[in-house]
Amino acid sequence: MKRLVTVAALSALALAGCNRNTAIGNDREAGRDPPAQAAPIRPAGSALRNVSTALIKPETMSDADVAAIGGTEGRCVFTLTEVSFPAFVYTPGEQGFIKLNGTLIPLDPAGADRFESGQLIVTTRLLDTRGNAGLRGLEMIVVPPGAGDELGYRGYTSCDG
Predict the structure, then answer these.
(1) Cα(15)–Cα(43) distance, rounded to whole angstroms?
(2) Region class of 82: left (phi > 0), else alpha (psi between -120 and 50), else beta
(3) Over the Cα atoms of the chain, what is R_g?
(4) Fewer CB within 10 Å, N or C, the chain?
């Protein structure tokens, strides 16, 4: 019995550090191989060339990515959960940035809630919901170049300023 308690205690101690990984996604090797630099910044035409539209999904931005686009000060940030890394950083009626195919894509304004880069279109729509942390609900629609359907994502937005 004493051996069983010792094994259980050691197992619990080993698992106690499992929630300390600060890397985005499910990267369990972040301590050994942290990201060295931000993703490249390119227009949608070159970033998505020869990529199947079925594979194009918004990716979360690392701290290095956010720094490369000038930070979030004075901008709005769309996240898929209230505690996740940004998936879209924007200023309504001005420029936005989204990460697709491992590339940060700058988007030009095409209206108050619409952004474009080449044939890539991103639109946003505020929702009448709030999360547990008080963030406002937001729907983001992504239409990749040549896509027959749009991709819709619901998450949260917070705006600085």
Answers:
(1) 43
(2) alpha
(3) 19
(4) N
Confirm if 75 and 159 have CB atoms less than 8 A apart. Answer: yes
H/E element, 64: helix 63-68
Nearest to 61 by CA among 40, 34, 88: 88
Between CA 52 and CA 148 the distance in angstroms is 12
Q: How far is Cα 110 from Cα 94, in angstroms, rounded to an integer?
A: 8
pTM assigned to the model: 0.78
Tens-digit pLDDT string for the chain (161 aa) = 677 667 666 666 565 555 555 555 555 555 666 656 899 999 998 888 888 877 889 999 999 999 999 999 999 999 999 999 999 999 999 999 999 999 999 999 998 899 999 999 999 999 999 999 999 999 999 999 888 888 899 999 999 76
Inter-residue contact 123 to 113 (CB < 8 Å): yes
Nearest of 103, 106, 127, 107 to residue 115 by alpha carbon: 107
Strand partners, 123: 114, 141
